[in-house]
């Protein structure tokens, strides 16, 4: 159901009896239904496809909300389900069975952050419909997440330049992964219709740009720990991509875009088709996108770099998504989702600014293929209880072809990262008991997952055969069980003064990871409304992230170094430094909590204000445990990682654990009995990270006259974060420093809508940061862009132009440029590409035809 079309308004007592005077002129049905919602304060929910092409008669007079909707739907063939606080409109000829026979105070909307239908949200949820995403000028989900104030654009981002030299941010496969709160792409879980997807490349992030926007109904983002509900990775939060349901007909879109500074030309072709029948439906979407490269020679502020250096890679991508459902028999329904994506990108990274990449540099050509298939069987056990059985088969193969040039000598290389996922899950949900405040509901289930990773790294030196430097395949089995409970203490049946409603929630999950161990994660929440206008929410929980398969299987390395480079080494003997993997790793753990205030005053219909405070304490992060290994011998915080004067047998035992043998850089012959010390700097669970701050959001939608409306919206996030690399070391600031999230990110917009036309203007602000790499500390300026979108729908046209839509977008209207930074290496980008974009002003036009 399209929550995006829901007009924010608090439910009022006895709304069915409330009568309101309406003066709605004949016109678009969707706009008329929104007007009823605004006027009555009653939620009216419908899909954009259901009302597309339908017109509503004039509505003049005094009606209850239910009666007003009945008049507007007359002759449309649409069916409405009337409930106490909501009206749900469907495009079927009869209500589906899961609606008929349910009590009036229940609903079937499942919002990310709970596994119980109709459960009250205790964590803030950001819901963006496809329509709202397009109004912001985004043409794909990768562009959309880079507009979210709660998301950090670093991590895995195709706009990151410089070959990963800027912090820990990179562009390995030109994918786009969510990075909520800047905790890392592997600390945010991304789902498709509630199902997991295969990981991308080495980390445990998921490429959200692989799902075409044309197939999406909405995206729901919960920026709060959610491992108690969804398991590993949901430390920063979880995002759920909801596909378009019950699509009928066909829709074709063509988009062309270009930048005014040069480079970055785009062509995009999308198609959606679908049909419904008695008891079932099918939707299929396809998308082809071609984006041109933006090079240093295309931008004035990168003139010091080699003009062929890539700032934004060229990308060619084709994506397919399908979803369908079929009622097998009374109370039994089968659903299936599937996706496929292939992306080919290219970028050049010269090592010097005095010559082309083919002299000294790296030329990369990542080719990525992903797929997923997720079937689900749902069975109504009773009129209130249901059970479901679901499975997923998914895979991602990142095949990175490269050519490294040194003094114009070419060395081809290849890196292949293949991830696969196999999962099966079963669960039940329904009411346990009836309380005066409502029904106590339970969701419980469990399942198994199998994760696989294959890695192969090779290169072909000139005149030599191919050398494989790393190759392994590993799998991990996961089993889990979960339970979630909601208890309505006060509700419609027993509300009283200052106790309009009170809901308590509890969830717990147990997961066992092969070769890692077991983790139990609880979460508790409440939602309290002293009146229909004001709601207070809070949640506390624990989340975790299992170590990645690459971290667990990283090659253990040993290097023999000259003793003269180490302080406090009077013998001067060589030192054996161990690095890489080989040390058992535990799950990374976090404690998270949020507190939220939500205001929806009935006196001002259409106004919604929300403020949230969040706090994440993240520990046991996998990291290198030693900073400055040459001073480790005399630093007491590393005492447990240093073995002085080891025996020859101990040295030989460590070398026997090195798959690639010992690398001797000591300048003398190896002698196991003449080693000053062994320093173990292999990866361990030693790092800590914290993130806290405030999220602010607001929306005010009101009618100007007739079917004309204005919508004001704003979303802001303030973040403070810091990190301790290893136990005993001081914490260092992250948020607000270069190549890390800024303290402030904000976006706000104004949208004017009428029957066949709407216009949007958005401002996006990315705060400045401090350049802490040198003294004195420098300042990196902020980045503000203005984006405008105009859309016209020829709904009333006939013949060739019937069902035609045109969208014009002008992004970064003022052509804001990223602030300059100083680099010791002139070949590196002179701006922070992990935060600020080099695309510049972009003009696009989209032509869409509904058949």
What does this protein look like?
The protein has eight helices and 44 strands. It has three domains: 3-109, 3-Layer(bab) Sandwich (Phage tail protein beta-alpha-beta fold); 126-547 and 586-623 and 684-850, TonB-dependent receptor, beta-barrel domain (Maltoporin, Chain A); 556-584 and 626-680, no CATH class. The chain has 851 residues and is mainly beta. Helix 1 packs antiparallel against helix 3 (65-73). The protein starts with 18 loop residues before the first strand and ends with a strand.
Query: In the CATH hierarchy, what is the architecture of the largest domain at level 2?
Result: Beta Barrel
What is the overall shape? globular
Q: What is the averaged pLDDT score?
A: 90
Query: Please, how many domains?
Result: 3
Classify the fold: give the CATH topology of the largest domain: Maltoporin, Chain A
Beta-strand share of residues: over 45%
Which structural class matches the secondary elements?
mainly beta
What is the count of β-strands? 44
CATH class of the largest domain: Mainly Beta
How far is the first residue's CA from the last residue's CA?
Answer: 22 Å
CATH superfamily of the largest domain: TonB-dependent receptor, beta-barrel domain
Q: What low-confidence regions span 5 or more consecutive residues with pLDDT below 50?
A: 1-16, 92-109
Largest sheet: 22 strands, antiparallel, barrel
Helix content: under 10%
Radius of gyration: 29 Å
- Helix run count: 8
Which tags fit this structure?
Phage tail protein beta-alpha-beta fold, Maltoporin, Chain A, single chain, mainly beta, 851 residues, 8 helices, 3 domains
């Amino acid at each position: 159901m399209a929550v995006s079309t829901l007009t924010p308004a608090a439910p009022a007592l006895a709304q069915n009896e409330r009568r309101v005077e309406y003066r709605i002129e004949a016109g678009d049905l969707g706009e008329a239904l929104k007007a009823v919602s605004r006027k009555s304060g009653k939620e009216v929910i419908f899909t954009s496809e259901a009302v597309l092409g339908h017109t509503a008669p004039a509505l003049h007079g005094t009606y209850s909300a239910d009666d007003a909707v009945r008049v507007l739907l007359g002759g449309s063939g649409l069916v409405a389900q009337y409930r106490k606080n909501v009206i749900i409109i469907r495009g079927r000829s009869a209500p589906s069975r899961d609606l008929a026979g349910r009590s009036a105070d229940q609903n079937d909307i499942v919002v990310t952050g709970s596994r119980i239908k109709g459960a009250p949200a205790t964590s803030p949820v950001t819901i963006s419909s496809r329509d709202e995403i397009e109004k912001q000028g985004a043409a794909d989900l990768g562009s959309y997440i880079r507009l979210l104030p709660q998301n950090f654009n670093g991590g895995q981002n195709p706009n990151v330049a410089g070959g990963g030299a800027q912090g820990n941010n990179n562009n390995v496969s030109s994918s786009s992964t969510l990075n909520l709160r800047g905790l890392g792409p592997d600390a945010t879980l991304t789902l498709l219709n509630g199902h997991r997807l295969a990981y991308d490349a080495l980390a445990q992030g998921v490429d959200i740009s692989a799902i075409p926007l044309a197939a999406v109904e909405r995206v729901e983002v919960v920026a709060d720990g959610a491992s108690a509900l969804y398991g590993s990775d949901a430390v920063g939060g979880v995002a759920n991509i909801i596909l378009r349901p019950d699509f009928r007909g066909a829709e074709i879109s063509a988009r062309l875009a270009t930048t005014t500074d040069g480079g970055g030309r785009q062509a995009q072709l999308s198609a959606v088709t679908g049909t419904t029948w008695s008891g079932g439906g099918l939707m299929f979407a396809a998308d082809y996108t071609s984006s041109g490269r933006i090079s240093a020679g295309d931008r004035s502020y990168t003139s010091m770099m080699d003009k062929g250096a890539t700032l934004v890679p060229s990308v060619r991508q084709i994506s397919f998504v399908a979803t369908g459902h079929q009622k097998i028999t009374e109370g039994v329904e089968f659903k299936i989702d599937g996706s496929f994506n292939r992306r080919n990108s290219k970028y050049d990274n010269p090592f010097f600014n005095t010559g082309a990449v083919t002299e000294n540099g790296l030329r990369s050509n990542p080719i990525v293929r992903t797929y997923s298939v997720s079937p689900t069987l749902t069975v109504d056990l009773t009129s209130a209880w249901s059970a479901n059985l679901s499975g997923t088969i998914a895979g991602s193969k990142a095949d990175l072809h490269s050519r490294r040039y040194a003094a114009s000598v070419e060395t081809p290389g290849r890196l292949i990262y293949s991830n696969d996922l196999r999962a099966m899950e079963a669960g039940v949900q329904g009411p346990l008991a009836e309380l005066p405040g409502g029904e106590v509901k339970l969701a419980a289930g469990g399942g198994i997952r199998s994760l696989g990773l294959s890695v192969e790294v090779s290169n072909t030196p000139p005149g030599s055969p191919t050398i494989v430097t790393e190759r392994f395949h590993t799998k991990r089995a996961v089993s889990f069980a979960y339970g979630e409970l909601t208890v309505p203490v006060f509700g419609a049946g027993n509300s009283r003064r200052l106790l309009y409603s009170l809901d308590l929630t509890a969830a717990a999950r147990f997961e066992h990871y092969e070769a890692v161990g077991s983790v139990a994660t609880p979460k508790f929440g409440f939602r309290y409304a002293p009146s229909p206008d004001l709601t207070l929410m809070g949640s506390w929980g624990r989340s975790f992230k299992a170590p990645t398969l690459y971290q667990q299987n990283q090659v253990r390395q040993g290097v023999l170094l000259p003793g003269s480079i180490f302080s406090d080494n009077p013998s001067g003997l060589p030192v054996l430094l161990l690095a890489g993997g080989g040390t058992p790793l535990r799950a990374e753990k976090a404690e998270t909590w949020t507190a939220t205030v939500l205001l929806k005053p009935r006196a001002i219909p259409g106004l919604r204000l929300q403020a949230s405070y969040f706090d994440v304490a993240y520990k046991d992060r996998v990291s290198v445990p030693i900073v400055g290994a040459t001073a480790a011998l005399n630093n007491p915080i590393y005492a447990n990682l240093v073995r002085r004067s080891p025996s020859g047998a101990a040295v030989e035992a460590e070398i026997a654990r090195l798959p690639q043998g010992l690398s001797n850089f000591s300048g003398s012959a190896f002698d196991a009995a003449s080693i000053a010390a062994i320093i173990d700097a292999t990866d361990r669970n030693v790092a800590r990270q914290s993130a806290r701050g405030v999220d602010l959001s607001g929306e005010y939608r009101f009618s100007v006259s007739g079917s004309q409306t204005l919508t004001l919206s704003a979303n802001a996030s303030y973040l403070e974060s810091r990190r301790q690399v290893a136990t005993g070391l001081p914490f260092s600031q992250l948020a607000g420093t270069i190549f890390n999230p800024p303290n402030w990110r904000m976006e706000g917009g104004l949208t004017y809508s009428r029957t066949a036309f709407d216009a949007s203007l958005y401002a996006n602000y990315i705060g400045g940061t401090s350049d802490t790499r040198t003294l004195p500390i420098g300042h990196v300026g902020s980045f503000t862009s203005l984006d405008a979108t105009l859309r016209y729908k020829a709904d009333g046209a006939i013949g060739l132009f019937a069902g035609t839509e045109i969208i014009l977008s002008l992004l970064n209207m003022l052509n804001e440029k990223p602030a300059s930074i100083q680099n010791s290496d002139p070949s590196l980008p002179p701006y922070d590409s992990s935060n600020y974009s080099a695309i510049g002003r972009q003009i696009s036009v989209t032509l869409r035809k509904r058949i």
